[in-house]
Amino acid sequence: MLGCLCYCLALGGCGQQHRTESLPQREAVPYVTAKELSESVSSAKSPILVEFSVPTGCYRCDQMRQQIDMLAKNSAGRLQVCRVNLTYERSLATQFGISVCPTYVAFDAGKEVFRQSYPTSGDLLLAELNGVLAAP
Fold it and tell me: Within a domain: residue 57?
């Protein structure tokens, strides 16, 4: 019986094609560097929402991450969304006066048009952002 079990495992097994933990996870909202952010803001054809956060160790960032991923998915084509990792891009925290994370800053036509630190939900953030972006 043990021989049969070993034979079945050898045939079916956990071949490399079945492993997923080694595959890189694609972020729904990408992290960008200072240079990439500058280029995106200056050349964007649509408004950009930037989440200034840290990927681990921040309860508030963790709480909003999935909501921002959904916001980005639902706003595709109308609003670009990206993240800045404040652990690595500390100069951006200073440049933009970020003292609380997560903080969300929106840019339209290269200018800051909206800022909010730690909103209570992605829906409220989007509602306020839509109000600002729709204004003449």
Answer: yes
